[in-house]
Design brief:
The structure is a single chain. The chain is mainly beta and 864 residues long. 13% of the residues lie in helices and 36% in strands. It contains seven helices and 67 strands.
Length: 864
């Protein structure tokens, strides 16, 4: 056992130190202090509270080599021009430029690039000539009469006029063609560099001499001979940085001789980023100097100046850029380098990882590592207190200030400057490797969990299983916490939460609304307690449980650390990284359970070395006495100061890149019309964040076709098949790197032309033809029915005529026959009365009298 603090271990830095001899070369940086502003002297610069993170791409990653120029277009893409041509970079993939319309650049040797704010990209060629790339098209401006020579650099003044420095002198674009300026301008030949300052003055470097022309003038004036560097100092927007230089006569720019000249490094290119830090690029290692009170000492060559060096050397000083999000880019011969700032600062312990953390006094932090070391960090320096046998499983500062450490070698308590081992309860001496979590209650008792092997309370030198509270669940306790009200909270596996107070034990479960899975984090400043687990974040307020949802569902997964700061903000450490939720967002989530909370996320891009462990060494987030937040990750330890200014994520510009129909590309100039019979339409869109390209999310919708927005994580082409002819309106939106949706939409309006048989006039003709045909069929049917009626009528009339004729003929014949019989009877009656009476009274009608009914006496018939 070691009494006292042993060997001091300097925390590893991610940058080296530069010999002072090399700093002397930067004496010409004197004017930089005037760019930063005198108000910064005597106070820490913005970049001093940030950590610089470096990211590299080489030829193996697809990056081009020998890059001469960098530019960022209005759609967010980074363009690289060099010996291998023109390449586009979205933060993930390098894509050699190829026009979808088959148009070619003048040359594959690209020597200069410029991206106007109005869109598009100007290209200068190493063999002379200019080109403009816009929406996939290429318009070349060959400069043969006279030849332009190699294009070195572009510059655009505030009114939009574009200038170019070439080996044949200065050229200017007159809105239709490139023309060299005449000799009356008195410009240098050749022109190596050209740029505008903030006042609109045009500065030109040629053969190590400096010239300028004031706004509204047409003749250059010589400003300086024998420059210390052949490159300007540029600000983050690419403007020439000017400032007073001691011993130099002022340049009369506005009639007041302000004594301002461009500032130069010594055989180096100087760039000032958006935090006012100074970057010095040369054939020597890259140097970064924070703009602080130490800057004058740097310029005087005083030792001890704060600076950082990076093993990045430039062959061409033009290949540097600060993008819109504040990333700093350099293109050394080997590929591409990006530097950016993170609010996270990593503390490195070479050869050690997986840390349990606990707060100490005055901002100090206590750390127990997987290798068994106990570290004490005070004022940025770490000392080793002792090495315990086996991994440290938890670290805890009790309410009374006592520090406890659980390790596979046992339970340890720091008393004064000594670590003392505490005997474990009977039967658990061999189970120290299962030590899980610890807390101290308001009565001074210490609760220690062995996971699924049991829970014990240690007080007055005695261990009591479950503290004598048999009503506590017997499943494994994963995390414990004692709140400011003295309540002891136990987070269990299988979605169980228990709270112990003077009134007894209360257990929460799924029936109470608890839905976080295995509980791994508990924290709270007042009566409201935050509970985090594998599947979510919830708040317990009395007996009520409030659930929350976020813009990104992954934010609340695998939470193993929770800190609530004094202003009500919440900081989470989980499987998505570190998430910051503002108090206003939390309040809105409490009022509206359906509200999706917005926040700020720190992940791999911000320098997070890994993700937190999910079982041991929790909690993984603590707040130190000085307000700094510390987070333990599987591969390192990071901290941040929540009081430092936040930099809201910039919305990524969303654009429609191209549209194709049946594998034929169309210009993204809308509205666009597609021919008839189009069966497949593809829409290519993008939103580029060079800071964190993987964090951008997209949602799109085709009006009148899609019922809801489709949300996707990657900008894959959207394909619509078999759309009917008509006009369509496609909208797509992008989120920022924190998942907040932008109100700006990119829109594609297109029309699918109908075939002749799909047109309105064809439908009208078809409908008219159908109606005429229907009318004709109707008339034909009427004719058929009329004919049928006439035929039927003729048949009936004929039949009736026949019947009438037959009746007529039969009746006459019968009457005549009857008359003959009457006459015969009359004649017979005079001669033979008896025979006449027989004839008169015959029982049936004679065959010659068919109209008389059978069986009716003839006399009766005649009588009737």
């Amino acid at each position: 056992m070691v009494e006292g603090f042993a060997a001091e271990i300097p925390l590893a830095d991610n940058a080296g130190r530069m010999p002072i001899a090399r700093l002397v070369r930067m004496i010409w940086l004197t004017g930089v202090m005037f760019v930063v502003g005198p108000s910064l002297f005597g106070q820490a610069p913005p970049s001093s509270a940030l950590q610089v993170v470096q990211q590299s791409w080489t030829f193996r990653d697809g990056a081009p080599e020998a890059v001469y120029a960098l530019a960022q277009t209005s759609d967010g893409y980074l363009w690289l021009g060099g010996q291998t041509g023109l390449v586009r970079f979205d933060g993930l993939r390098f894509e050699p430029f190829k026009s979808p319309f088959g148009e070619e650049l003048l040359s594959t040797l690209v020597s200069a690039l410029s991206a106007p704010s109005s869109g598009g990209l100007w290209v200068g060629y190493g063999y002379g000539g200019f080109g403009f790339v816009y929406d996939g098209h290429v318009k070349n401006y060959p400069a043969d009469q006279p030849a332009s020579g190699t294009v070195k650099e572009f510059a655009q003044n505030p009114d939009g006029t574009l200038w170019a420095a070439t080996t044949s002198g200065l050229w200017r674009f007159d809105q239709s063609s490139w023309r060299p300026i005449d000799s009356g301008w008195n410009a240098p030949v050749p022109a190596d560099h050209v740029g505008f300052d903030r006042a609109g003055v045009l500065w030109v470097i040629g053969q190590h001499r400096l010239f300028f022309v004031r706004p509204g003038h047409t003749q250059f004036e010589l400003a300086m001979n024998s420059l210390p560097s052949n490159d300007f100092t540029l600000d983050a927007d690419g403007r020439v940085v000017t400032g007073p230089i001691e011993g130099k006569k002022g340049v009369n720019l506005n009639g007041e001789s302000p004594n301002e000249y461009p500032l130069f490094g010594n055989n180096s290119a100087v760039l000032i980023d958006r935090t006012s830090a100074v970057w010095v690029a040369s054939h020597d290692p890259l140097v970064r100097i924070p703009s602080s009170a130490a800057l004058p000492n740097i310029l005087k060559g005083v030792a001890g100046t704060s600076h950082e060096t990076y093993d990045v050397r430039l062959d061409d000083f033009r290949s540097k850029l600060v993008d819109r999000e504040g990333n700093i880019w350099f293109a050394p011969p080997t590929g591409l380098e990006k530097f950016f700032y993170s609010r996270l600062k990593e503390e490195r312990f070479p050869g050690d990882s997986n840390f349990a953390i606990a707060v100490g006094d005055d901002g100090a932090i206590w750390i127990g590592s997987f290798n068994g070391y106990i570290y004490h960090i005070v004022h940025g320096k770490a000392v080793v207190v002792q090495r315990l046998g086996g991994p440290v499983l938890f670290a805890y500062r009790a309410r009374d200030g006592t520090l406890w450490f659980g390790a596979s070698s046992g339970l340890w308590r720091l008393t004064g400057r000594k670590l003392v081992r505490i005997d474990l309860p009977g039967g658990m001496a061999e189970q120290a490797r299962f030590l899980q979590t610890i807390t101290q209650d308001q009565h001074g008792g210490t609760w220690v969990s062995f996971g699924r092997h049991g829970l014990y309370r240690f007080a007055d030198g005695k261990w009591t299983p479950y503290g004598g509270h048999d009503e506590l669940p017997k499943t494994g306790v994963v995390i414990e916490f004692t709140d400011n009200m003295g309540r002891v909270w136990f987070g269990y596996m299988k979605n169980q939460l228990a709270v112990l107070n003077d009134a007894g034990v209360r257990v929460f479960g799924a029936s109470d609304g608890l839905r976080v899975g295995n509980i791994k984090a508990i924290y709270g400043r007042g009566s409201e307690i935050w509970v985090g687990g594998e599947f979510g974040l919830e708040q317990v307020d009395g007996g009520r449980i409030h659930s929350f949802s976020s813009l990104n569902e992954e934010w609340f997964r695998g939470i193993t650390g929770i800190v609530e700061t004094a202003n009500g903000d919440l900081w989470l450490n989980g499987l998505s990284g570190i998430v910051h939720l503002r108090h206003s967002e939390i309040s809105e989530g409490l009022k509206n359970p359906a509200y999706r909370i917005k926040g700020e996320r720190f992940g791999r891009r911000e320098g997070l070395p890994g993700l937190p462990r999910q079982l041991s060494q929790i909690p993984t987030a603590v707040e130190a006495a000085d307000g700094k937040l510390w987070f333990s990750e599987a591969n390192g330890l990071v901290w941040l100061d929540p009081s430092t200014a936040e930099h809201p994520a910039m919305p990524a510009p969303i654009t429609i890149q191209s549209v194709s129909a049946d594998d034929k590309s169309y210009e993204p100039v809308f509205p666009v019309s597609f021919p008839a019979h189009t069966s497949s339409i593809q829409i290519y869109y993008s939103a580029v964040s060079l800071s964190d390209p993987e964090a951008i999310r997209f949602r799109y919708k085709l009006q009148a076709h899609d019922k809801d927005w489709h949300e996707v994580a990657m900008a894959n082409p959207v394909n619509y098949r078999n759309l009917p002819p008509g006009s369509y309106h496609f909208d797509v939106a992008a989120s920022d790197t924190n998942g907040v949706w932008s109100d700006k939409l990119a829109t594609a309006e297109f029309t699918i032309l109908p075939a002749f048989y799909q047109t309105t006039w064809f439908r009208v003709v078809c409908a008219s033809t159908f109606l005429v045909l229907l009318w004709g069929l109707y008339r034909l049917r009427l004719h058929q029915l009329h004919r049928q009626f006439e035929v039927g009528l003729e048949e009936r009339v004929g039949e009736r005529t026949r019947i009438a004729r037959e009746l007529h003929d039969t009746l006459l014949q019968s009457l005549h026959g009857l008359m003959f019989e009457f006459q015969a009877a009359r004649n017979l009656f005079t001669r033979n009365p008896e025979e006449a009476v027989k004839l008169w009274t015959a029982p049936s009608v004679p065959p010659s009298r068919p109209l008389l009914k059978a069986g009716v006496p003839f006399r009766a018939y005649v009588r009737n």
